[in-house]
Amino acid sequence: MKKSVIELENMEFYAFHGCYEQEKTVGNRFIVYLRFTVDATVAASSDRVTDTVSYLDVYGVVKREMEISSDILENVADRILSSLAEAFPAIESMSVKISKMTPPLGGQIERVSVTMDYVR
Q1: Residues paired with residue 39 on neighbouring β-strands, in sequence order
Q2: What's the mean pLDDT in 93-103?
Q3: How confident is the model at residue 86 (pLDDT cuts 50, 70, 90)?
Q4: Which CATH architecture best describes the domain 3-119?
């Protein structure tokens, strides 16, 4: 078996996640990093995208979930992982990191992040 690690790095979204009304109204910038593993044995020799998990399709799922407003990033991360697990049974494990840029914490901070893992 040949394992493949596929990473979608620094996907940027403008979304409306947060506990405060201002965050739900004004929104914020979010950076999403996704890493997942698949068995690449067939795809490595066939050179066909149909024999692996298309990262274009994966991006579409992440984008869809980022468009749904949530109070906390843990909820967004869980939805992303659950949706990907359902849509792509070939994914064996994955990790998602969601960063909220310049969160409204009353001081200077670059980002706050939540990372969640999934293993089938």
Answers
A1: 3
A2: 95
A3: very high
A4: 2-Layer Sandwich (3.30)
